[in-house]
Amino acid sequence: MAHIDTKKIPFEIDRGLRRYLKAYGREIHLPLQYSDLLPYQDGVALYDKGGLDTFWISVTYESAELQRINQGLKLIYAILKANGDLSVMEHLYVDRIDLCLYGNSQPFRIRIVNKINDNFDYFYIKNADASRIYGLELEHLLSPNRMSYVVDRSTLIEEHIAGIPGEEFIRKYIHKGRVQNEIRLAKEFVKFNERCMVRLLGDMHSSNYVIEILPDFEEVHYRIRAIDFDQQCYEPRKSIYMPQYFKQNMPIIEIGLRHMTPATVRQYQKEERYMIASRIRYSSRQIGDLMKFMVRTDISRPEYTLQLREELASHYSFAAFHHCQTMGEIVRTSLEYLLEKN
Fold it and tell me: What residues does 109 pair with on adjacent strands?
């Protein structure tokens, strides 16, 4: 089974990635930085409906600072959701500012509420990390999902990705026999596994993705979406990039073993790789620009790069991996291999 031994180190945004972000409208001046939210006055632990600690705290600020922070947060939400249209701010208010004390990035989560209908939404404020940004951009370009995020200096703003957390879905749906179409869930997991492997997104155990339940005539369809991109091409072992090897995902894998043959699995793998290849060709210029800077960026340890390139060269029987000197080159070679076979 796959597991990660050491905590990932963050990487700064270099000039090349900064140029890419500016060219494609991802870098925007923001009214607040991550550091502006750090001097909070107090924090109260948050618990879920079952009374379990969520490892988030709800923070408060001095009244003198609170108005400035709230105004800045509403403007950031307008930038993220409406291209800076300030008219969307008229009926919004900041209901809560939470801080996660668990994980690499220790993000702030902002809860925004529409006072007219009490509808609410979230977004996140984090320290910008180059590998995470590459992960977000690869998800945007190579998966069926579009990602909304912006960067300003060392601050990253991300939209909230709605869905049922994987571990909760396993607990409330799989263990209780409430999955309406097990074959479709198993098929989606195979496709999710392929997307992660092709673009080298690691650590996709059940806490790091959500599952959407989508009505489809008389049946339902499932989509699995990654929500954590910290482990984009950082770890040295190929198993880290294959969700099938995480023990937390075993309940979904067992569904696949019941319903699918090896031939069926290979068919779904080929389908997903063909779709990724189509996305690469459709966005070839932008992906080319991203790869141009990614191959020059230091986003892992040198010894990790050497180990992963050898494992992938053996896995694919593709000698080009032996020549990769950076994780970015390994990702590019993975995409080149995909295109060659599709």
Answer: 98, 124
Where in the chain are the domains? 31-127, 164-341
Nearest to 39 by CA among 96, 93, 99: 99
In degrees, rounded to 5, the angle at the alpha carbon of residue 142 between the alpha carbons of residues 137 and 143 is: 100
Q: Please write the tens of the pLDDT for every residue from 88-112.
A: 788 899 999 999 987 667 899 999 9
Smallest CA-to-CA distance from 94 within 121, 65, 63 is with 121
> Residue 47 in contact with residue 57, Cβ under 8 Å?
no
Q: Judge if pTM exceeds 0.85.
A: yes
What are phi and psi for residue 337, nearest 5 degrees?
A: -65, -40
Q: Output the pLDDT for position 5.
A: 64
Whose CA is closest to 102, among 50, 52, 30, 171? 52
Give Cα 285 to chain centroid, integer Å: 23
* Contact call for residues 240 and 201 (beta carbons, < 8 A): no
Closest alpha carbon to 152 in 93, 101, 56, 84: 84
Closest CA to 11 of 92, 130, 174, 135: 130
The 10s digit of each residue's pLDDT in 277-315 is 999 999 999 999 999 999 998 899 999 999 999 999 999
Amino acid at 274: Y
Crossing angle of the two packed helices 182-199 and 262-282, in degrees rounded to 10: 50
Express each pLDDT in 224-235 by its tens digit.
999 999 999 999
Q: What tokens were used for 34? A: 């991550």
Which pLDDT belongs to residue 101? 85
Q: What is the CATH number of domain 164-341?
A: 1.10.1070
